[in-house]
Amino acid sequence: MTTHEKYKAMKKALGLTNADIAEIIGISPNSVKNQTQSSKELPTWAKSMIFVWEKLKADE
């Protein structure tokens, strides 16, 4: 599974929207959309979110 697929799965599982993520990290929803385009590498903040989500799932 690619990091983009993991990101989408995480958002769906947690019920998060771009607006929710924008509020959490302090940027605009459009910035979240722009930074997480499938044509770009995911930013560090998104990779960090995936890491924590996967870690928490593994510890359940």
Automatic annotation (TrEMBL):
InterPro entries: Lambda_DNA-bd_dom_sf, RNA_pol_sigma70_r4_t2. GO terms for molecular function: DNA binding; sigma factor activity. Residues 10-37 form the RNA polymerase sigma factor 70 region 4 type domain. This is Sigma-70-like protein. GO terms for biological process: DNA-templated transcription initiation. Signal peptide: none annotated. It comes from the Bacteria. Pfam families: Sigma70_r4_2. It comes from Marinifilum flexuosum.
